[in-house]
């Protein structure tokens, strides 16, 4: 059931993205700096003409997702470090238990109770 909901959601998302792309086909000029800030020659060098608006929209969306993921990954760094430390501690404890079990298995005198 959950699989069908996931497929339905992805189909709806794809349809919405296609509709947005078709509705925003017109070409726009993408400029790095506002027009009045520098001379026209520099503005022309720092701008791209004829970019479809949907490419700008989707590009900004993807850029935002990547920035958000990078920030989240860096925020979770301390938790990943803590997990690695706990794994090392667990491995060390398991090694100590194995060594102790091996030692107890070899020395059967340690397992016997003293005679009363």
Short description:
This protein is mainly alpha-helical. It has helices at 2-23, 40-45, 53-75, 77-106, and strands spanning 27-31, 47-52.
Question: How is this structure best described in words?
Answer:
- The chain has 116 residues and is mostly helical.
- It is 70% helix and 9% strand.
- It has helices spanning 2-23, 40-45, 53-75, 77-106, and strands at 27-31, 47-52.
- It has a two-stranded antiparallel sheet.
- 0% of the residues are buried.
- The model has no long low-confidence stretch (mean pLDDT 86).
Strands of the biggest beta sheet: in what spatial order?
Answer: 1-2
| DSSP, total strands | 2
Q: What average pLDDT do the residues reach?
A: 86
Radius of gyration: 31 Å
Total of DSSP H or I helical runs spanning 4+ residues: 4
User: Structural class per helix/strand content?
Assistant: mainly alpha
User: Biggest β-sheet, characterized?
Assistant: 2 strands, antiparallel
Which percent range fits the helix content?
Answer: 55-70%
* Quaternary structure state of the chains depicted: single chain
Proportion in β-strands: 5-15%
Regions with pLDDT < 50 over 5+ consecutive residues? none
Question: Ends: how far apart?
Answer: 68 Å
Shape: elongated
Secondary-structure element order, as H and E?
A: HEHEHH
Compile the SSE list and pairings.
Blueprint: H1 2-23, E1 27-31, H2 40-45, E2 47-52, H3 53-75, H4 77-106
Antiparallel strand pairs: 1-2
Any descriptors?
116 residues; mainly alpha; two-stranded antiparallel sheet; 4 helices; elongated
